[in-house]
Amino acid sequence: MAGVVINARDISERKEAARLKDDMVSVVSHELRTPLTSLRGFAELLLARELPPEKQRQFLTIIHDETVRLAHLINDFLDLQRMQAGHQTYHLACTDLGALLRDTVAVFTSEAGPDVIRVETADPLPPVHADGERLRQVLANLLSNAIKFSPHGGAVTVGARLDGAQVLVWVADQGVGIPPEALPKLFSKFFRVEHHETRHIGGTGLGLALVKEIIEAHHGSVWVESVLGKGSTFFFTVPVAATAVPPLRAHGV
Ligand code: ADP
Known about the structure:
The protein has helices spanning 2-48, 53-84, 97-112, 132-148, 207-217; strands at 93-95, 117-121, 128-130, 156-163, 166-172, 222-227, 231-239. By secondary structure, it is α+β, with helices and mostly antiparallel strands. It has a 5-stranded mixed sheet with strand order 2-4-5-7-6. A two-stranded antiparallel sheet has the order 1-3. Strand 4 (156-163) and strand 5 form a beta hairpin. Helix 1 (2-48) packs antiparallel against helix 2 (53-84), helix 2 runs parallel beside helix 5 (207-217) and helix 4 (132-148) packs antiparallel against helix 5 (207-217). It starts with a helix and ends in a 14-residue tail after the last strand. Adenosine-5'-diphosphate binds at residues 141, 145-146, 149, 173, 175-176, 178, 186, 191-193, 198, 203-209, 232. Adenosine-5'-diphosphate is lined by residues 141, 145-146, 149, 173, 175-176, 178, 186, 191-193, 198, 203-209, 232.
């Protein structure tokens, strides 16, 4: 009986590996080849023709943006491979989550416009036990999704509050929302919702898989609540840092 169970698991693991390979081939062929084709095309145009300065600038801007997108894809992909192979080192330390939230939001506010993002935190938040750089990556992914999947605007709200021994953080938007049947697959590598309204929005389907890896490595949880056409709220938890015990000092020493 045990043999049957192991075999069944073996087969489903092999199927999963084959599915991931297929997904990877389709992402590599589309997400890497499309920008490469445009990089090559615009570079060749610039080399072959004497173009007016404004045209040159326009084409160089496209080349620059595509290069940034490619670097982003490659970095996310390598980060995720490293994490899933268990090779990621987390520098866990007592981290000021409130400051981290405000810093990350400030970066996005300068890009997305000053009125787009609101912060609601119950101050002061206790410090959390976390790798600050990786938490920043989690917030950046959630914020960038909230903004890009709100093509008609709407407020994005970032909040945090103490919830037992955890801090609960949320990023809420009033964007396109997520259909209920997509919710169970949302955090899987390469998964993207097929929807006519979001077809033109770029992405790789790696961001939320990274978010899940990072939060679970912190012994936290991540989940989403969403209503199609109304918006989504992503939640995650991170543990509060253990209260620092002051070192014992003998009197008179
Ligand atoms: P990417 O954004 O690169 O496509 P993610 O892994 O970050 O990849 O997200 C996976 C998919 O989940 C997205 O393609 C989108 O369909 C859906 N999604 C994520 N965040 C949101 C959001 N805030 N609102 C609506 N859909 C979202």
